[in-house]
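[job 0412] stage=complex_fold ligand=aspartic acid status=START
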Amino acid sequence: MDLQKIKLTRYILIAMAAGTVVGLTLGQIVEFATDPVTGKNLLDSKNRPILESSFAADYIVNGLFQFLSEAFIRSLKALVVPLVFVSLVCGTAAMDDVRKLGTVGLKTLGLYLGTTAIAITLAIVAALAIRPGIGVGTVDAREYIPAETKSLLQVFIDIFPDNLASAFVGGHMLQIIAAALAFGVALVVSGEHGKRVLNVFKDLNEVIMKLVILVMLMAPFGVFAKIAQVFAKEGFDTIFALAKYFILVIAVLIVHAVVVYPTLLKLFTGLNPRVFFRKIRNAQLFAFSTASSNATIPVTLRAAEDRLGASNKVASFTVPLGATINMDGTAIMQGVATVFIAQLSGIDLSVTQYLTVILAATMASVGTAGVPSAGLVMLTMVLGLVGLPPDKIGLIIGIDRLLDMVRTAVNITGDATITCIVAKSEGQLDKEIFDRPAEEESVS
Ligand code: ASP
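[job 0412] stage=complex_fold status=DONE, emitting structure tokens
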């Protein structure tokens, strides 16, 4: 099989369109299971509606589609921990001057937090102007049981693994990053022994990258099944009632992606934003379909190194870190949702409270993994801080999946933008690779 010939983007786009049509059609056939007493939809442990048993529900939506989408997403996720560790060890060990790690780290952190603060400020200002919480029709709120959130202190303590095995098994990304950095530095200072081990890591890195390509081949099937499942299951019946909220979140997400990022990119690097967008399209599509920046790491990393031209030294650090702590799209949803819930509840928040929201959401994004619906968990904490009722989140869960998909694509766009900025500033961006014509993404 000639992998070069496979035009992945085209197949994924076709799969998305087909998945949408099939999903919406199935959505007309399947029914939601309801509680015989209250008449309300029954929900699973993730607050998602359960389908009434039928052939289409049991064998297609929860059968075949479940298999195809899970097989794809699980395979992608399985690669994340080994890929991040091996790639970051190689990247760290390649730093000629270990002190550079500090500069790259500080720059990356500053830019990640800075862009998140811009994102949430934009969202709050837009929501205060448009007032999405005024004049909302009747919405069937799902019961929402707020999840436990960690204290900020614990988030920072948790960066340090106390057990390497559990860091790997649990996929604790910040701990894995910390361990890889330490291991990479140790390799550099271990002389010949270090060199021998590093060579094994370099070979492993190549092999894992090939595995990423193999898993990407599953994408058209996985994406089709996942999108069809989301559209068949979610129903999105509340979109109309919450249209103002929904459209506003999407609008701010788009503005952030097509105005803020390109401006920063142009300003700091002089790179052409159009080329940038063309080259990360595949990663955006993966993020959209999986709703997980974490599961998308292998694809984002590949785009950053092989298509945007960022060096492994920089990208192997900035991409996994970004997928874990940089969630501008999520912050945007939280900004709009906070104002929306305040307006619905008839509560006027003070300027200090809005500043609290900006600070809290920016810091909270550090501690939450890039997995589906993580943003809602963080929202619980943000609302709690300014005294808004977290159970009101039940109102927006019904339409959150679609927003989650869009904001995840924005999240990884932010990671790629900052990767380019940091790489360029460190002289670690190969302009020749960046400028290479981006014919349709082929899996090679
Ligand atoms: N799904 C998002 C991500 O993985 C997080 C969220 O907003 O829920 O980046």
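The radius of gyration is 22 Å.
[job 0412] exit 0
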